[in-house]
Write a structure and sequence with these properties.
The structure holds two protein chains of two kinds. Chain A is mainly beta. Chain A has one domain. In chain A, strands 2, 4, 5, 9, 11, 13 and 15 form a seven-stranded antiparallel sheet that branches. In chain A, strands 1, 3, 12, 14 and 16 form a five-stranded antiparallel sheet that branches. In chain A, strands 6, 7, 8 and 10 form a four-stranded antiparallel sheet that branches. In chain A, strand 6 and strand 7 form a beta hairpin. Chain A starts with 5 loop residues before the first helix and ends with a strand. By secondary structure, chain B is mainly beta. Chain B has one domain. In chain B, strand 2 and strand 3 form a beta hairpin. The longest helix of chain B has 8 residues. Classes of the chains: A mainly beta, B mainly beta. At the A-B interface, helix 1, strand 4, strand 11 and strand 13 of A face helix 1, strand 1, strand 5, strand 6 and strand 19 of B.
Chain lengths: 269, 278
């Protein structure tokens, strides 16, 4: 059921399903590059060792409650403050794994394929990221992944992107992999190949996720900001949250700092 | 067309009521083309991101003239409105590795395979299927393979928004440093008193650039400008309470991106937009 009127919207804001708080002292960033807060936040997740499909109950998830039976949970807005301007992106972490190496130059299948998606199961709009859990090497090379696309077609290969070297090696970097021509999403990943050694094994993994909502932060110095569908500073509309969603933050900052604290206003309808 | 009534109407439809069918789309573009680093840019000069790798995947350099749609590879994800309804953009957002302005446009028509050494009229042709009246449509030359180092000028022969054919655009520089490299988008200005384009008959180079390369012509309609002041800044547009008002997205739109850079770094972009139907 929809929120029918402005009056109902106001009521939803003042009587939400839940106000879920978050507090993330994020990793050291590079301005404009994407970071994964999974293991750097106040209540951190752990680097996965096997292929799993995390849920809201997984340690590291924001941990919202599900909507009541037959109802749909959504994000109406949020309040937040941060020490740096930038983008705090609420994502649903659908499948992840770890234990991959920055020095292995053959196709890596450790802890792969990724665990089957339990939400957005077609894969359409699901993004493929490489999360670095322990810093890899200083030598820049490239990386590709073999995946099954949103139509269930396997053996798809991502175009190469830079991997390793400054800006592409540090812990908590989330490197997005582009898709093969004609594709719009990912169901699963079968293998990852690093073209040349980066010089250090480190530890990295595949993360399949879906961006849902963005807190657009124009204010540094921990100035309080508000975001909402009709108050601005947000993107993603009135974002739906699937039952069991493993919500976490990804971030693109204007500076090298990334901490944020605040709350999301969740409503069911 | 049925206008959106008020904020209540928007909230209702954006939460799925009254067949609002909300779409919240996210995409990313990497500064690479078929896996190779994309060319550097020129501050203040627009670049086309049509061939940038990303999600969705890259578009291909066109060959024959075509009117691309939301089903064309390279188009950002968008589902046309159903049952006679129309689509309206309520929000747009982007951030990037470098500062600039992202331009979201509907790619109405494109052609490739044109040469930087041919000095006679090169045929464009084709028929657009959206915004067919032409008002607000713009055109640019899109370079797929570098053309020559000799600067010349380019003009187009077109039919304007009132159906007047045989109009000639004002000549602009084409070829030579900064006007030759792949991904450059060289805008073609209209003749005096014109405000749009229905069709383009041909383009003509005043002289050879000395290398054929491969370029094309694109006709589009701009939908949104999203400013990203510096690297990592949140460029957001709220069309509900901000200006301009809510842009209409035509059925079948081939949503595509241009980038107006502040510096020379090819952009890495993460963005999104929200659409509701009425």
């Amino acid at each position: 059921m929809a929120i029918a009127t402005l009056a109902d919207y106001k009521t939803a804001l003042t009587s939400p399903r839940e106000i879920v708080t978050f507090n993330s002292s994020g990793p050291t960033a590079i301005a404009g590059r994407l970071n994964d807060f999974w293991v750097s936040q106040a209540i951190p997740g752990t680097a996965p060792t096997t292929a799993v499909a995390p849920t809201r109950a997984t340690v590291g998830a924001i941990g919202q409650i599900n909507a009541a039976s037959g109802k749909q949970l959504s994000i109406l807005g949020g309040h937040f403050s941060s020490n740096s301007q930038g983008n705090y992106i609420v994502c649903d972490r659908l499948s992840h794994q770890g234990g991959l190496s920055g020095i292995v130059t053959t196709a890596q299948t450790t802890n792969l394929p990724t665990a089957a998606l339990t939400r957005y199961t077609s894969g359409d709009g699901v993004m493929l990221g490489i999360t670095i859990y322990t810093q890899i090497g200083a030598t820049a090379t490239t990386i590709t992944a073999t995946y099954t696309n949103q139509s269930g077609v396997g053996s798809r290969v991502t175009p190469v992107v830079v991997f390793g070297g400054t800006g592409f090696r540090e812990a908590n970097r989330l490197l997005l992999l582009p898709l093969q021509s004609g594709d719009s999403g990912v169901q699963s990943v079968q293998s990852v190949t690093v073209a040349g050694t980066t010089g250090t094994a480190g530890n990295f993994g595949v993360t399949l996720f879906k961006p849902l909502y963005v807190l657009c932060n124009d204010q540094a110095n921990n100035v309080l900001s508000s975001a909402g569908f009709i108050s601005g500073q947000s993107a993603g509309g009135v974002a739906k949250i699937e039952d069991g969603a493993c919500l976490f933050f990804a971030n693109i900052s204007q500076t090298t700092t990334t901490s944020i604290t605040g709350s999301l206003i969740l409503q069911e309808n | 067309m049925t206008a959106l009534t008020d904020i209540s109407d928007l909230i209702n439809r954006s939460t799925g009521g009254n067949n609002g069918t909300p779409q919240n789309v996210f995409y990313h573009k990497q500064p690479r083309i078929a896996g190779a680093a994309a060319p550097s840019l020129i501050s203040g000069r627009p670049a086309s991101l049509w061939q940038y790798d990303g999600q969705p995947s890259a578009g291909a350099a066109p060959t024959t003239v075509a009117a691309p749609t939301n089903a064309t590879t390279g188009a950002l994800p968008f589902t046309s409105a159903g049952n006679g309804r129309e689509s309206w953009m309520t929000q747009a957002w982007a951030t990037a590795l470098t500062g600039g302005t992202l331009i979201l446009y509907d790619r109405l028509l494109h052609i490739g395979g044109l040469s930087g050494t041919v000095t006679t009229a090169q045929t464009v042709g084709g028929t657009i299927t959206r915004n067919t009246g032409g008002k607000g449509n713009f055109a640019f030359a899109e370079i797929y393979t570098q053309i020559g180092s000799t600067a010349t000028t380019i003009t187009m022969s077109y039919t304007d928004q009132d159906g007047n054919s045989g109009n000639t655009s004002t000549g602009v520089v084409f070829g030579g440093t900064n006007f030759r490299e792949a991904t450059r988008a060289i805008f073609l200005p209209l003749a005096a008193n014109d405000s749009g384009i229905q069709s383009i008959q041909s383009v003509t180079l005043a002289a050879s650039t000395t290398t054929a390369g491969n370029f094309g012509i694109v006709m589009g309609r701009i939908l949104a400008y999203i400013g990203v002041g510096v690297a990592g800044a949140a460029g957001w547009r709220d069309y509900i309470t901000g200006l301009p008002s809510i842009p209409k997205i035509d059925d079948g739109s081939c949503l595509s991106l241009l980038w107006m850079p502040i510096g020379t770094t090819a952009p890495e972009i993460l963005g999104g937009f929200s659409i509701v139907e009425k």
